[in-house]
Write a structure and sequence with these properties.
By secondary structure, the chain is an all-alpha fold. Helix content is 77%, strand content 0%. It has a domain of 36 residues. It has 2 helices and no strands. It is rod-shaped and about 95 Å long. The protein starts with a helix and ends with a helix. The mean pLDDT is 86.
Length: 64
């Protein structure tokens, strides 16, 4: 009988510990600055690619 009570108590504690919390705080913004820097770098890269393609087209026009 004491084992039954101990088992029930352990099961209850396990369920309470594993249940989702009702805390509504948002998760922290991890690596926010790094993500913003990466987005900016991608935007710059797109602009550079476009400029390089335009320059290549101009070079091809001049060589013809």
């Amino acid at each position: 009988m004491p084992y039954r009570s101990a088992t029930l108590l352990c099961t209850f504690l396990l369920l309470v510990a594993c249940s989702p919390s009702n805390d509504q705080t948002p998760p922290p913004k991890l690596f926010k600055q790094q993500r913003e820097a990466l987005d900016q770098a991608k935007a710059v890269e797109a602009g550079q690619k476009q400029a390089a393609e335009q320059q290549q087209k101009e070079i091809e026009k001049q060589s013809q």
